[in-house]
Amino acid sequence: MSGENLSTLILLGSFLLMVFLRFPIAYSVGISTVLCLISMGQNLSVLPMQMVKGVWSFSLMAVPFFITMGVLMGSGGISEKLIALANSLVGWMRGGLAMVNIVASYFFGGISGSASADTASLGSILIPMMVDQGYDADFSTAVTITSSCEGLLVPPSHNMVIYATTAGGISVGALFMAGYLPGALLALSLMVGSYIISVKRSYPKGDKFSLMGFLKQLGTSVWALAAILIVIVGVVGGVFTATESAAIAVLYSLFVSVFVYKGLNWKGVWNALEGCIDTLAIVLILISLSGAFGYCLTNLHVPAKAASMITSVSSNPVVIALLLNLILLILGMIMDMAPIILIATPILLPVATSIGISPIQFGIMVVLNCGIGLLTPPVGAVLFIGSAVAKRPMEKVVKATLPFYLCMLITLLLLTFIPAISLWLPSLFGYAV
Fold this sequence. Notes:
The protein is mostly helical. Helices cover 80% and strands 0% of the residues.
């Protein structure tokens, strides 16, 4: 075995071994990188140099701002306003509260950008409400956790910023615009699945639709929705960079949460910022270590080898696209979202582009694959959160989620084989796709 192949085996083998042994993911990435550098005969001073290089990006500064914005808005009484708005829009349908859950997640995702925050915030309100109105607890939990993945696609999503930084040369604004229709398609597919189940189980309808009621709730929620407009209009219109718009959105979120909705006092703001620091520390450590891990991958020519191995299975673009999705789904079962984006993107993106998949379209595919992974054992962070919020056994929640897995997989296949779903809006706004 050549020295390069041995180093590759040490890097990937030790990493996967530690993941299966349930090491913290940052330790897995860091230790495997150190072992690889030693096997390559490189000075370990390369490690801190590459870690600094991994976070030395102006675009990456948007990540902490978007996370802070989401925490402030999520803690500031925004959830109730968005639930009321969704109820006024779709609550009249059969299984109305399930539809409200899905639509509220679409609205809330545009603020938090986090499936975990969506599940914890909306789930703590909507799951008990649905159970009180006669919905099955496991069904209510399944709707909550699957719809939370809309927030990963709907901008501003900090995971898209991480992907854009990792992929290199991709406009954050283009990715943001690319997420709207896939997020809406996911919501629609989940609503169809919920409606079919609701009809079979005779779940209740809500009140009839009222235009005046909708307009009233829209007026109440406009302060929350305006935060999304600041980011999207600023970035797409070229007024701000993604980082600048995120910083402005944080200040706006602070103002709305404290002075308009009054869901936070200054002590609550301080507690929210403390929670942000914990999240940011984890994310930034992962990004920095993944920079060093990526350095090893590049020097060992792993992306080229992976591309050759995948294309050797078949030359059919359809088969290769399905293989890419399968790899990402399997990774999602054993790893969290940010590490997958940071580690898998440099390896799989060249394969995707070689069969004609746009880097922007592939970014949407990666995010949705990772979102499905958040709902699947053994890692499944959102699955665990949903089960904890609902106080339901995880295996029962998984069983109730099976029909919604099918809805999400259908959405994934549509996004994979119909590029226009992801690329139409960015091209409409003049982005190169």
